[in-house]
Request: fold
Amino acid sequence: MSLPEIDLSIILPCYNEGKNIPHIIKLFKEALKDRHNIEVILVNNGSTDNSSEVLIEEFNKVNDPRIRSVKVDVNKGYGLGILSGLNAAKGNVLAWTHADLQTDPIDVIIAYEKFKQINDSKAFVKGKRKNRAWGPAFFTYMMQLIASAELGVKLVDIGAQPKVFSKDFYTTYLKDKAPYDFSLDLYAQYFATRYGTIYEIPVVFKTRKFGEAKGGGSLKTRIKVSIRTFKYIRELKRKLNIN
Reply:
């Protein structure tokens, strides 16, 4: 008996998430239920902890062909992890979300169902975070104001997960041109807004249980990521010849 065609591929970039991986696999397996047209790809994004060993152990336990992994030998950024997963994806619809589980796995399924209901290859469905602390929310708000002003499009909650889109969007805008760092979210949302339509679903932002935040967390890290993103906004503006 042949396996059903994969329609949705969910990508999770994992960098030093050894403690979190068992929880990730458990919750995504629960979210998938009996859906066999969805795959989950955990990207071991150049981890220096025991992630490789944990992945092998957990895959042997669950024995579920819908959940697999790809490996990036050397970490070159969050964006490269996602792009590596997207490149290995089998689905007609693609998605990514974070391995920190601050966005519930079921939200990816909800976003996917909304995408299918819209039935438009130019649609881009993303989360809009609720219940965030004022500090991180303020950084997000300021970043979206600056990005929107510089790039000439309305960008809202740029880093929110999940993100769901067509394989055609990936091959046209992301595959060979997208940045390898945290600017990937900005890059994808710019083109989704410029050449398609963005739809949002509300997501309740949860507290990370295991591991450390890679792009947020401390004030120092947020400032560092923000400065790097602002530099990328100006670089993207120049590349696109936006006045």
